[in-house]
Amino acid sequence: MKTGARIMLPPVFTIALMCILGGVGYWGIESIKKDLDLLSGHHMARLALANEGREQLLTANAAVYRLYAWIGNYDEERIAKEAVVIDAHINEATKRLEQLTANAGSEGEKSASAAISPLLAAYRKSIAQSIDLASVDVGTAAGMMQAADKGFLAIAGQLNQLVELQRKASDESLAKANQTAGQVIRFR
């Protein structure tokens, strides 16, 4: 081997190793970025939608009981206004939960999201009937509200299942990002 080649071989070899290391580092960082984007962009957004839907349903449920507490002091017009507000909360929750169903990732998410729709329709019907009956007899309406509360608890159970699925998916995505980061760190 010529002297010039012997002199150039170590720097070329070093530059080649640096390029390989840079490529592996870039691959690792891109992989981590992809996993973290999935975590923050998809999983957390879905978790927020589920929590917003739950919050709207809780607000509607509390508004119904607040209406029952004050119904003796309200005229028909005010009762109708409160019913519209309650229905708007339920509509908002329905919208959020439909977004969850449309963008469901796994089969578990699809089944949990799809199971909420009929429960939500029954809940809406029970609430409407209870409010209609409350203007006549609050005691009977409160008894009827028990059926709505059972529906609410069923919806809450499905939402909790959906939130748990999202948490598991988030944890898996985070674990994958941490594993990739560990591989990149070990390679150096």
What are the defining features of this structure?
single chain; 4 helices; 92% helix; 0% strand; rod-shaped
Q: What is the gist of this entry?
A:
The chain is mainly α. The chain has helices at 3-70, 76-102, 107-134, 138-187. It is rod-shaped, with a radius of gyration of 28 Å.
Question: In one word, what is the shape?
Answer: rod-shaped
Instruction: Report the end-to-end length measured between terminal Cα atoms.
Output: 31 Å
Based on DSSP secondary structure assignment, what is the total number of beta strands?
0
Residue stretches low in confidence (pLDDT < 50, at least 5 long) are none
Q: State the major sheet.
A: none
Please tell me how large the radius of gyration is. Answer: 28 Å
| Average pLDDT level | 83
Helix content: over 70%
Number of helices: 4
The helix/strand order is HHHH
Characterization of this structure:
With 188 residues, the chain is mainly alpha-helical. The chain contains four helices and no strands. Helix 1 runs antiparallel to helix 4 (138-187), helix 2 (76-102) packs antiparallel against helix 3 and helix 3 packs antiparallel against helix 4 (138-187).
